Amino acid sequence: xxxxxxxxxxxxxxxxxxxxxxxxxxxxxxxxxxxxxxxxxxxxxxxxxxxxxxxxxxxxxxxxxxxxxxxxxxxxxxxxxxxxxxxxxxxxxxxxxxxxxxxxxxxxxxxxxxxxxxxxxxxxxxxxxxxxxxxxx
Length: 137
Description:
By secondary structure, the protein is of the alpha/beta class. It has three helices and six strands. It has one domain. 28% of the residues lie in helices and 28% in strands. Helix 2 links the parallel strand 3 and strand 4. The radius of gyration is 16 Å and the shape is globular.
């Protein structure tokens, strides 16, 4: 079953990619896999430079998700994972498990029922306060 929300998120994310990478040599390809997960591949001059995954409420919990993310990162390309906002911080915590082995570039977003995206930043331990943003003079 294909989830309309995945298409909303994909449409919004594809627009953002166009704004982030406004080069004529950038090509994106959006597909939906057999479990309803959205997949966006980003190519620059025919070379794969990024893969983005729009997870559903259940798909991110699958046993092999970290292995899938690790395989993408082994290609030395950017990984973006989008999950429902209610699950996004848990996905971010799960992604931190990969930090034991890799120095890499990934981004996690949460999305709401309208398909709006919010970036999920690095979590802080509950006993520590997040640092304040310094003022620039």
